[in-house]
Amino acid sequence: MGTYLERDKFAQNIGNVFTFDLEYIGKTPNIDDCYIWDIAVVHLQTNTAVEISIYPDIHPFPRPFSEEFVQVTDALLKSRNAVSFSQAWNRVIQFIQTVRVNVSGPVILVAHNAFKSDKEILQIECKRNNIKMPYSFYFFDSLIFCRKILSKQVSYTLNDIYFALFGKSIENHHFAISDTVALKDILIKLDVRKLEGPIYPAYHTSLQAVKWLGPSCERRLFYNNIRSVEILVQHIVTNYCDRQLNHFHVPLQQFLEMFLVQHYNIKKGNAVSISNSLILGKWINGV
Which of 89, 139, 188, 279 has CA atoms 20 to 30 A from the CA of 97? Predict the structure, then answer.
């Protein structure tokens, strides 16, 4: 389940922090249709790194989503000694276990837009290959952190933040190792002593994945022991069904808005927007 990692706790686990990046292709941008072709991991403290290219299980290889992305070909993958996803993941696990400082502490994997992209795609690939990620691996989204630390930026893409801090673009952008090293450099530039924010293990969806559910609402939900979208949905549905059994009948949308306000002290306007997102985003099915 998710939790908020304060600065002192983050500092205690800094030896187990890794930045990572995935590059992927797909016939559509829908995450369920995407396949990883490149992965890189960098240890924040020592700058030790690993990059592994992967033969994606999709043929023929589709064109990139835009001109800025890499065109994946058999020749490119052969030149980079690509392996299967299972082989790549085993090498990533071995690298992390070898480099991490605290064997008994959690591993914190940091990616830019992790909660809506990298974490989700990694879970999908693991499921395709019958691989279970360890619950000791937590994910941290540097996009959320950068929005908090760097105010009033026109854009918060990885390359734009890198340009704002270093006055140049990421060299070889959209190769996993380049973006992973760039993210590590960004975190160091912003001061790793300031690192704090929500972390989530595998198989638990970030509350901020729900549109309009921002950091302040997330903290309120954490305070009420609602620590992932799955737990929030379960809590809502359980209470809604219990109300029905007690002959309290209101439409689901109305109940959602009322429930968020009364149980979690979320402002009415935010509750309306979050309720719409939960239903439109199909987090909650039913009428």
Answer: 188
Domains along the sequence of the chain with CATH: 3-204 (3.30.420.10), 218-280 (no CATH)
Give me the residue label for tokens 């002192």: 8
Q: Is the dihedral of CA 202, 19, 80, 90 positive or negative?
A: negative
pLDDT mean over 232-247: 88
**Residue 173 near residue 68 (C-beta atoms within 8 A):** yes
Q: Locate tokens 């439409």: which residue?
A: 251
pLDDT the model gives residue 286: 60
What region does 149 belong to: left with phi over 0, alpha with psi -120 to 50, or beta? Answer: alpha
Tokens linked to 8: 């002192």
CB 195 within 8 A of CB 15: no
Closest by Cα among 46, 1, 21, 18 to 178:
21
What pLDDT sits at residue 38? 98
Distance CA(210)–CA(129), nearest Å, equals: 27
- Which ranges of 28-99 does DSSP label H, i.e. alpha helix? 74-79, 85-99
Strand ranges inside the chain, DSSP E: 3-5, 17-26, 34-43, 49-53, 107-111, 137-141, 197-201
Residue 21: what are its φ and ψ, rounded to 5°?
-150, 145
Please state, in angstroms and rounded to a whole number, the distance separating the CA atoms of residues 198 and 222. 10
